[in-house]
């Protein structure tokens, strides 16, 4: 091999090898620092694009979970209102049944009617205040409840307004006045109908609430599965990267030594002139 002081082939080769080792070491250190083997498009453009699309799906599913939580909470408030109204209807039934007693005097029946009116007013208070996040399902001009159940917002579950007001249940004082025993008997029938109607509306809301819960469980599992899939695509194997780090650090030290030795080669030319 020719000896030259202008071109040190051995040093150039050693430098190339050292630079390659340094690049590999930088890559490994980056993976260890971030925990990602694909942290940007330059690492692997195709995999990065797939991961970003999947992250978009996870973000959409997170919004769907929030939507389902809001809808569930709204129905929980509505169901609580319905249960309270059911208790009031039973008390109202007690009043009209007592008023159906033919031996009852007018003053007693009037007192029962006044109690009934207070119970009706309480129904109004409950339905007016059964609101969550600005949404009220049970008042006369109530709102429907809708929840997103997919990552793109294209699929929803909805439940219509369920009017639980005294008017909506046809148990207002005007509709069920009982100035006589016969009128009280008629009013009792109206309340029985209202109790049945309330049960139907409660069943509708209960079924919707259960569907929201099932949908949230599925959305949560789907989101978790996608996140695991993203991890499989982009997460670094820390045990493997740790082993690579040790190996590359040794190679770097050996490369530095090889470069040092190669750089001393031109000095041997001086021996030719002694």
List keywords for this structure.
single chain; 274 residues; mainly alpha; f41 fragment of flagellin, N-terminal domain; two-stranded antiparallel ribbon; 5 helices; 2 strands; 3% strand; rod-shaped
Please characterize this protein's 3D structure.
This protein is an all-alpha fold and 274 residues long. The protein folds into 2 domains: 65 residues; 188 residues, f41 fragment of flagellin, N-terminal domain (Up-down Bundle). It is 68% helix and 3% strand. It is built from 5 helices and 2 strands, in the order H-H-H-E-E-H-H. A two-stranded antiparallel sheet has the order 1-2. The longest helix has 55 residues. The two termini are 21 Å apart. The model has no long low-confidence stretch (mean pLDDT 91).
């Amino acid at each position: 091999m020719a000896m030259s002081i202008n071109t040190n082939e051995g040093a150039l080769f050693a430098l190339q090898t050292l630079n390659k080792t340094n690049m590999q070491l930088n890559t490994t250190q980056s993976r260890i620092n971030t925990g990602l083997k694909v942290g940007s498009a330059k690492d692997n453009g195709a995999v990065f694009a797939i991961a970003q699309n999947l992250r978009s799906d996870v973000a959409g599913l997170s919004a769907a979970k929030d939507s389902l939580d809001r809808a569930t909470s709204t129905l929980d408030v509505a169901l609580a209102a319905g249960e309270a109204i059911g208790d009031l209807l039973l008390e109202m039934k007690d009043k009209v049944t007592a008023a159906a007693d033919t031996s009852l005097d007018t003053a007693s029946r009037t007192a029962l009617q006044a109690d009934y009116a207070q119970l009706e007013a309480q129904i109004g208070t409950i339905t007016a205040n059964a609101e969550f996040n600005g949404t009220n399902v049970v008042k006369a001009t109530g709102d429907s409840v809708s929840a997103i159940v997919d990552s793109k917002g294209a699929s929803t579950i909805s439940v219509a307004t369920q009017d639980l007001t005294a008017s909506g249940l046809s148990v207002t004082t005007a509709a069920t006045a009982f100035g006589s025993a016969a009128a009280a008997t008629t009013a009792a029938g109206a309340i029985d109908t209202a109790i049945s109607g309330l049960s139907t509306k409660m069943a509708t809301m209960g079924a919707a609430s259960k569907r929201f819960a099932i949908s949230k469980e599925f959305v949560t599992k789907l989101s978790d599965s996608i996140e695991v899939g993203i991890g499989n695509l982009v997460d670094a194997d820390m045990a493997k990267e740790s082993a690579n780090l040790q190996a590359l650090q040794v190679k770097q030290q050996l490369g530095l030594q090889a470069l040092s030795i190669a750089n001393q080669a031109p000095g041997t030319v001086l021996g030719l002139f002694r």
